[in-house]
Amino acid sequence: MLREKVLMRLVVLLLGVIASTAQAQHYFFGNPIIRNYKPEEFKGGIQSWGIVQDDREILYIANNFGLLEFDGATWNLYSSKKGTKVRSVYVGGDGRIYIGSQADFGYFAPDEQGTLQYFSLVDSLPEKHRNFDEVWRIYEQGGRIYFFTFKNIYSYKPGKPIEVIVPGNPLEFSFQVNKELYSLVWGQGLSVLENHRLRLLPGGDFFAYKQIASILPFDKNQKIIFTINDGVFLYDGHSVTPFKIDQRQIKEKLIINQALLLKDGNYALATQNKGLVLLNAEGQLLLNATLEDGLLDNTIHTLYQDTQENIWLGLNNGISMVELSSPFSRIDGTMGISGTGYAANQKGNTLYLGTNSGLFVTDLTAPKRRFSLVPNSTGQVYHLNQLEGHIFMGHHNGPYFIKDGKAGLMSPENGAWEFVPVPNQPDKVIMGSYKGISLLASSEDGLHFLHKFKGLEESSRVLEFDKNGELWMAHGYKGLFRIMFDPKLEKITSIKFYNSKHGLPSNQLVNMEKIKGELIFPALYGVYRFDKSKDRFIQDKEYSKLFAPNEHIIEMEEDVQGNIYFISDQRVGRITVDRFGKLTLQDHLFRNLREQLNDDLSFIQVLDVNNVLFGAKEGFIHYNAARAKPLLPFHTRLAQVLSISNEADSLLLSGRKLDKATGTELPYAFNSLRFVYASSFFEKPEKTQYQYFLKNFDTRWSDWTTKTEKEYTNLPEGTYVFHVRARNIYGTISEAKRFEFVVNPPFYRSKWAYTIYTLLGFLLLGAAFYQVDKRFKTEKRRILLDKERKLGQKEIEIRQITNQSEQEIDRLRGEKFQAELDHKNRELTYSTIHLINKNELLNNVKLELQEILKNGGSIAPQEELKKIIRSIDHNITSEADWKQFELHFNHVHGDFIHRLQDRFPNLTPQEIKLSTYLRLNLTTKDIAQLLNISVRGVEISRYRLRKRLCLDRSENLTDFMLKF
């Protein structure tokens, strides 16, 4: 069994090699990917005559309007002083861009800011040599730059006078091959420039009257010479032999404007009438790209292969870039296909492609591939299969059989999805349709409808038999169906349905693929296998680990070498298998495909080991595995640095000046900057993304963006390093480009300013010290004088104070004596008053008692006692006694009664007495005895006195009297 498998694999591989050999005459399976630039886009003239690339991978193009510059993001146009058409361009070893135009030649060099400025060299020529037509070729050799016209040759070495070589006859185009300069001298032949003279080559007279387009290396001993109208020849240094070109697919005679030796050893021809032509070293036609294949024009004046191996075409109307290095080509409307790609199949040298518009066919051996619509196939094509050497088509209208170049409907069953051969019964086929599955039988006339199976009415788009002969059907929105038939395929014996209850992650988006002879089931996420013993699905870890946890695999297809091409919801790629069985996922080269593919029903068809088709939104994309190679590195460059601090942006540095700048210092006024950058990757440059980082300002790299400029405003003073890098459509990241610069502080914070501040500080400090010292000395003198004066004053004051102290002591002693005297007087007065009253009272009482005794009771005792009381009352209220008391009281208390009467004249005698007793701070009881009233009467008298004195309730009456 193993031997049979190996033999089968070798047969398939051999068939693939044979098919590849049959297709080897085609450089591309389809048409190459072409990017066109119209004059409106690059703002130049319609015609371009020369294309070169400098060491920074910037393109320079000689254009009708001047010199075009393209850095992958921005087009710039530079005009010469005379504004004439630029016919040739060359980048010298000194970095100058030399150009040739009408009656002028010179070079562009950067100024101080890096902007290209033109310098004409014709002004230094003698007047007699200034009359020439156009400079069509520029070459460098031996440190000299040679400008070739149809009249003279001008040799220029920087710093030295221009030498003029005047041939005897008019010149045609000139060429450089292997460091030798050749020119066609009209009427004489092909000549070589030696010692500033043109020497006719042996056999060169063969070209005396033949216009040469290009001379290129052919092998170690021969050169290949392309003429404009007279064919192609090989020249070995002595003789000329014709070189035959296979022009069977090119009906018209080629008019060659220029030829170019490509890096893969093939030759590219820029033609006047047939667009771009590619030949191999045997003269076989590899490619002919014309207007109908996507070019802007069939006339190509010049061509150039860049560092990424793309070929640039200077057209009669515009500029085109052909991705010759790409392993991808397109099969679309330019080849006769219309619609979205859904199906493909190859039968020998015939290729069938199915789209939503119908079935298209082409002969792969045809010189110029063009697809034509198969009759009766118009409409949606879903599937193409080859069974027993016949092509069958699943179509919206039903199953079709392709015979004699036409499509014939085999059954009225609408919506045929797929055809699957029954294992071990090669004449039987299961067909999936919109409403279930049917059995078909094959014959010489195609497939014949036998019957439709009952019991399954589901749409059956994805069908596959497992190794046990059981049919599986994947339904995109429900799950999986496992179907078993009776031995005669007459009916379905059992159907088992599987979904998320049986180990799958979901019911939806479950697919089915046959890889290495076994069924695997890509689900919503992850890849699963069916474990029959457990009747469940288990995750296949080997495949699942290749994909992201949330990645959904939509389509997978295996080639004869075991490589697996896949499409997921996130990417497109290929899984390769090494000799140890290890799986490796590669997706970088396919990153450009995802957005171009058919997102309705994704489709992959492996035609052979090298050719794979992907269904695209427009036709198909072809992948040639044999042409796939490691991606070449590309560069990111900083194009401009501009100051945006002012109203109008000002250019600081650009071009080569910027490349060579290190530690650029900027004034603080230029602390707002715009950085403009680009990359040298020219495939879909609008999708190239950039990432930037400003060291000492940003904390990390920025997010990826397609913008080609970045602004920073109000940067603080300091040292910065701007980094920028690019990521192309394949995910390759370039090396970061860096630009170091310093933002100087403003003048008031500069080193000079701080130096001035320091000097001024020292001066101010010195002046301050001087003033302080001067003030200190003056103050010291003043203080000494003040001290002497104050000492004198102090002595006088001390004497005065001594005298005053003695006088004060005497006064205080007198006041103390007087106070003691007054106190005694007050006490005396108080005692006297009481004594007087007491004595008087006692005397009166004594007299009354004596009177009572004397009378001997003639009067009733009661009356006598009343009389005694009245006598006591009279003594108590004696006015004479009060006058005596008032006199003493006023003396002791500073004339209190008079002052009180003056201030309060409405006071009654009783109130004045109460006031004096309050002044003496007597108790209420004592006052009551003195006034001969009750205690309650005293309280009432106090209340009336307060009203007389108009005292507030918060004021104390006794305190008022003591303070009065």
UniProtKB/TrEMBL annotation:
<dbReference type="InterPro" id="IPR013783">
    <property type="entry name" value="Ig-like_fold"/>
</dbReference>
<dbReference type="InterPro" id="IPR011123">
    <property type="entry name" value="Y_Y_Y"/>
</dbReference>
<keyword id="KW-0812">Transmembrane</keyword>
<dbReference type="InterPro" id="IPR011047">
    <property type="entry name" value="Quinoprotein_ADH-like_sf"/>
</dbReference>
<dbReference type="GO" id="GO:0003677">
    <property type="term" value="F:DNA binding"/>
</dbReference>
<feature type="transmembrane region" description="Helical">
    <location>
        <begin position="752"/>
        <end position="772"/>
    </location>
</feature>
<feature type="signal peptide">
    <location>
        <begin position="1"/>
        <end position="24"/>
    </location>
</feature>
<dbReference type="InterPro" id="IPR036388">
    <property type="entry name" value="WH-like_DNA-bd_sf"/>
</dbReference>
<dbReference type="InterPro" id="IPR016032">
    <property type="entry name" value="Sig_transdc_resp-reg_C-effctor"/>
</dbReference>
<dbReference type="GO" id="GO:0006355">
    <property type="term" value="P:regulation of DNA-templated transcription"/>
</dbReference>
<dbReference type="Pfam" id="PF07494">
    <property type="entry name" value="Reg_prop"/>
</dbReference>
<dbReference type="InterPro" id="IPR011110">
    <property type="entry name" value="Reg_prop"/>
</dbReference>
<protein>
    <submittedName>
        <fullName>Two component regulator three y domain-containing protein</fullName>
    </submittedName>
</protein>
<keyword id="KW-0472">Membrane</keyword>
<keyword id="KW-0732">Signal</keyword>
<dbReference type="InterPro" id="IPR018247">
    <property type="entry name" value="EF_Hand_1_Ca_BS"/>
</dbReference>
<dbReference type="Pfam" id="PF07495">
    <property type="entry name" value="Y_Y_Y"/>
</dbReference>
<feature type="domain" description="Two component regulator three Y">
    <location>
        <begin position="682"/>
        <end position="743"/>
    </location>
</feature>
<dbReference type="InterPro" id="IPR015943">
    <property type="entry name" value="WD40/YVTN_repeat-like_dom_sf"/>
</dbReference>
<keyword id="KW-1133">Transmembrane helix</keyword>
